[in-house]
Design goal:
Elements (H helix, E strand, L loop, with lengths): L2 H6 L4 E6 L1 H4 L8 H16 L3 E6 L2 H8 L9 H24 L5 E6 L1 H5 L1 H16 L3 E6 L5 H6 L3 H10 L4 E6 L20 E3 L20 H12 L4 E6 L5 H6 L6 E4 L4 H10 L6 E5 L1 H10 L8 E6 L6 E5 L5 E6 L4 H7 L7 H5 L13 E3 L1
Parallel strand pairs: 1-2, 1-5, 2-4, 3-4, 5-7, 6-8, 9-11
Antiparallel strand pairs: 7-8, 9-10, 11-12, 12-13
């Protein structure tokens, strides 16, 4: 077992993306038996202590069938209509299947804008973190009815990579109808060789990427791009065949299944490096001696109670500096509250936040995973 494969056995948070070809009967509606297979495997992962967030395709394909169309349309408004109709059947099928195991699901529709905007990014992150903590399986899809670019672009591959960043996943698993990345198209060349391991973001791999199938719009290129995105937060990616029996269990066991694209950094290190490289500091938080000691010696999150003064103008999700009483910068991070909100709760304990603001998003002003000491 290679080091990369062995590392998979220790992972605790997965994003699993399932493509249309694995969920539909060649475009003729959803395959309920297939959904049951995936749900059973996901529940088995959860029994092993692995949190799973599911990114599922299939809405457009299901909608095309429900509308009685013979093939996937090309007009954007028709694709949007198919997505809207098909999403109902897709989520209903998942909910019924998970209920067999007394598990609850949550539907989340996202666009790239939801993740690129820092405020909406943190809102989505908080919601997903809460759902996972509650033992609920989030089922994520692109909001195709309003996001035209997403329909045309990536068959949820890019979204899956972004979700891996969002929830700080250990691994992204992209299940498709191919066994992984080959050095040429195995559907054309029977001599094609499977690439077992490579580095995420290796541009030389792109020459091996082929086109997508008739149901999905992605192809191998978007899966490589998704792996590159996921690697930014330290997640490795496995591209594997969903037709392989017990494929998720085998991946979790470190078996040589599909192609693994390894990230260069561990998750925490990757996020900290990103923070360290940011130069657009929007505000400053002046800390008391107790907060300075906690950050430096214990590496904990920054609580509002340790803040004596708030300066600058910033919004939730933007980067602020943390300074000691003498004005020396000791840390920076992504703040969970706007400037005015931070000013209101500064100096107060976390239990006072709801009373001061009328609501509470996070108990920390800056979570330790989003904070780096300088």
């Amino acid at each position: 077992m290679s080091e990369a494969r062995a590392a998979l056995t220790q992972t605790k948070r997965w994003v699993v993306k399932i493509g249309s070809a694995l969920l539909t009967n060649d475009g003729c509606g959803l395959r309920a038996d297939s959904l049951d297979v995936w749900v059973k495997q996901i529940m088995a992962l959860r029994e092993r202590g692995i949190d799973v967030v599911l990114v599922s395709s299939g809405a457009v394909a299901e909608g095309v069938t429900r509308l009685g169309w013979q093939q996937r349309p090309s007009a954007v408004h028709e694709l949007q209509a198919a997505a809207a109709v098909g999403q109902m059947g897709l989520i209903q099928a998942y909910e019924q299947s998970f209920q067999q195991y007394d598990a609850h699901t949550a539907q989340i529709l996202l666009t790239n804008d939801d993740i690129s905007d820092r405020r909406r990014y943190l809102n989505a992150k908080s919601t997903l973190r809460t759902l996972v903590k509650l033992g609920i399986v989030p089922i994520i899809n692109e909001n195709d009815t309003v996001a035209t670019n997403e329909i045309q672009f990536g068959d949820n591959d890019t979204l899956a990579g972004l979700v891996a960043n969002l929830i700080e996943a250990d691994v992204l698993v992209i299940l498709t109808d191919q066994s992984g990345l080959y050095d040429c198209d195995p559907r054309v060349n029977p001599e094609a060789q499977l690439i077992n391991e490579a580095s995420a973001g290796d541009v030389s791999l792109e020459k091996y990427a082929g086109k997508g199938g008739k149901l999905g719009r992605g192809g191998m290129l978007t899966k490589l791009q998704a792996a590159k995105i996921a690697a930014k937060s330290g997640a490795s990616t496995v591209i594997a065949s969903g037709n392989e029996p017990q494929v998720l269990r085998k991946i979790a066991d470190g078996k040589i299944i599909g192609t693994i694209l390894s990230a260069a950094r561990q998750p925490i290190a990757a996020r900290k490096q990103w923070l360290a490289n940011q130069t657009q500091i929007k505000g400053r938080l002046i800390l008391d001696d107790g907060a300075v000691k906690v950050l430096r010696e214990q590496g904990k999150s920054l609580l509002a109670v340790g803040v004596t003064r708030v300066e600058g103008s910033f919004k939730r999700g933007e980067i602020v500096s943390c300074l000691d009483a003498k004005g020396s910068e000791l840390a920076r991070g992504l703040v969970n509250y706007d400037k005015d909100e931070a000013a209101k709760i500064a100096g107060y304990g976390s239990e006072k936040i709801e009373g001061l603001l009328g609501y509470v998003d996070e108990s920390e002003l800056i979570h330790r995973d989003n904070l780096i000491l300088l």
